[in-house]
Amino acid sequence: MEKRRKILHFLATFIVIAIIFSLVLPLETLAYVSVRGYFRSDGTYVRPHVRSNPNAFKFDNYSWRPSQGLYNKSYYAPTKNYSSDWYTPSYITDPDYYLGKSLYESGRNGFSSFSIPRSTTRSYSSSYSSDYYSAGTGVDSLGATKHSIPKLPSISIPANAHLNYFGTGWVCNKGYKKNYTTNSCDPVNIPANAHLNYYGNGWVCNKGYKKNYITNQCDKVIIPANAHLNYYGDDWVCNKGYKTKYDSNFNKIGCEKVAVPANAHLNYYGNDWVCDRGYKTKYDRNFNKIGCEKVIVPLNAHLNYYGNDWVCDRGYKTKYDNYFNKIGCEKILIPPHAHLNYFGTDWVCDSGYKIKYDNNFNRVGCELE
C-alpha cells in the first residue's frame, strides 16, 4: 500500500512539473492569430477569422492601408527594448506572416483549413511581396487543405559585406564602402595622416591636418604666432587677447593683439573688447569702435541690466526731446481708479473701469465700464 502511494505521489509530481515546464518554456509564436467566432454585446455574430499578431506597428497589419498611421500608439513605449520582436515588423521576424496574410485575403479562419509550413532556415523579406509559389491543391496526408505560400526572396551578400540590422539587406564591412555601380564593396583608400571615419566607410584627416579637396590628401595645418589648433584639429584660431587678421581677399593670414581701451575689458571669447559696466561704446563717424564713455544716469533712473545705458525707476517714465533723444525721467501721474502697470512704466485702469479718452484720443482717466 505504501509502495503504491509513493508511485502515485511520484506520478502526480511529474505531471505538475511537466505542466510548469510547458508553461515556462518559450513557445514558437506565429505572426498571425486565429480568432474564433463570437457574439458582440449587440447580438451581432463575428465569424472566425485571422488577424495579425499585435506589436508596436500598424503597417504590418493585414488590413493596413497607406492612409492610416504607421504605429500603434496605444502599444508604443519608448522605454522598451527596441531590439525585441515587439518593435520589429512581423514580416521580418516571422515568415508565417505571409501565410496569415494569404488566409486573411482568402477569408479563412486558420483553425484547421491549412498545414503550417516549417523549415530549418528562415528567409527574410524587407516588405510584403505579392509573388507566391503554389504548394499544390487538394488535401495533404493529414487531410488539411493546401494553399499558396508566399515566396520569400533570398538576399545575395557580396564579399566584404554582412546583413544589415533588420536582416532586409546588406551593408559593407568596416573599411569598405558601397560601390553603387557594381553593387559591391570597395576598400577605403586611406591617404597618409588620415584614419577611418566613425562609420568605417570613409576617412578623415588626423588632428593637425586638414583635407585638401583638390588632391584628396591631408595637408598639415600651419599655425601662425599667437594661435593654436581649433577644437576639431583641422584649422587654427587665435589665442585669447588676439584677433584674426585677414588679407584683401578675406583669407586668414595671422593674429594681431586686441587693443583694449580705458574702461574696457576682453569679451567672453577673448577676440575683442567690451566696455565696463557703467560705460558705453563710443563710435566714430564710420561706426568704428574707438573707446568707452561714462553713462550719465539722470535723477530717478538707474543702470540697465547690461550696465551700458540707463532706465527710469519704477513709477517714472522716459522723457524725450524733439529728436527722440532720452533726456530724463518724469513722474507718472496716476488718475483715480488706476494703478501702475506690471513694469511700472505707465498706468492702467482698475478692474471694473475702462480708459477714458478726450477728443484727440489722449488718455485722460478711467470711467466705469
Provide a descriptive summary of the structure in words:
- Among the domains are: 31-150, no CATH class; 301-368, no CATH class.
- The strands form 15 sheets. The chain has a two-stranded antiparallel sheet. A two-stranded antiparallel sheet has the order 2-3. Strands 5-6 form a two-stranded antiparallel sheet.
- The chain is mainly beta.
- The relative contact order is 0.05.
- Strand 17 (242-246) and strand 18 form a beta hairpin.
- Helices cover 10% and strands 30% of the residues.
- It is built from 3 helices and 30 strands.
Set out the fold topology.
Blueprint (H helix, E strand, L loop, with lengths): L1 H23 L7 E4 L2 E2 L5 E2 L2 E4 L37 H4 L2 H11 L25 E2 L15 E2 L10 E3 L6 E3 L3 E4 L4 E4 L6 E3 L6 E3 L3 E4 L4 E4 L6 E3 L6 E3 L3 E5 L5 E6 L6 E3 L6 E3 L3 E5 L5 E6 L6 E3 L6 E3 L3 E5 L5 E6 L6 E3 L6 E3 L3 E5 L5 E6 L1
Antiparallel strand pairs: 1-4, 2-3, 5-6, 7-8, 9-10, 11-12, 13-14, 15-16, 17-18, 19-20, 21-22, 23-24, 25-26, 27-28, 29-30
